[in-house]
Amino acid sequence: MTAPTGSPEPVRPQIRLVVRANRFLCISVAAIGLPSTFVLIMFDPGGINSTADDLTRAAGFASFNLAFWCLVLLFRRWYFTFDARNRAVTASGRWKARGTYPSRRFDRIEYSVYDARIYEVRADGKRRRLPVRRWLADQQDWRALVDLLLAAKQPAPTSRSPQAPAAKALRTAPLDPRGPALPPDGAGP
Q1: What local confidence, expressed as pLDDT, does residue 178 receive?
Q2: Whole-angstrom Cα distance, residue 183 to residue 189?
Q3: Bridge partners, residue 88, by sequence
Q4: Quick one: pLDDT at residue 94?
């Protein structure tokens, strides 16, 4: 069934936030890492099969992996994405696979203002940190993500964790530091 041609389509809000990698950090790591890779792999400390030779080559390969990973983030143009409607993060957390969080055993995603990290949380309260780092993300995109996560204080309702609206309202009701409100004069005991 199609909509009538004269009716306007509803405007959908932005539901997907793309968080880019920090360009300056990635370029710096690649610019330092690739030349140091060449130096560390080609450096010969003098002995054949020496431990120092093995360690410098291992450091060279580690430097190459870090520089290559930063170049991939630069050319891919995204670090991870956040779907605001489903409150899900999609990141390339595993080899040749995209990780979608919260995982199967977890219910929701939370942002911790204490340590500036994103966690997936189970129904019993256990948390696991997501494989996304604040220092590697673009600062402006990270702030937009934090604003989205903190704006929706309540987790998105899922079929796994139904909550009664009255209990949710009681949990979020602000407490008055002066105590309960008293009825006006003549309205009660």
Answers
A1: 53
A2: 8
A3: 83
A4: 57
Q: How far from chain centre, in Å, is Cα 100? A: 10
Average pLDDT estimate for 33-54: 78
Domain coordinates of the chain in residue numbers? 23-76, 80-160
Identify the CA nearest to 147 among candidates 14, 4, 12. 14
The answer to whether residues 91 and 101 touch, using CB atoms and an 8 Å cutoff, is yes
Contacts of 24 (CB under 8 A, 6+ apart): none
pTM higher than the cut 0.70: no
How far from 75 is each of 21, 67, 88, 156, 180, CA to CA, in Å? 10, 12, 24, 33, 59
pLDDT, average across residues 100-114:
87
Number of residues that this document lists for the chain: 189
What are residue 49's phi and psi, to 5 degrees? 60, 35
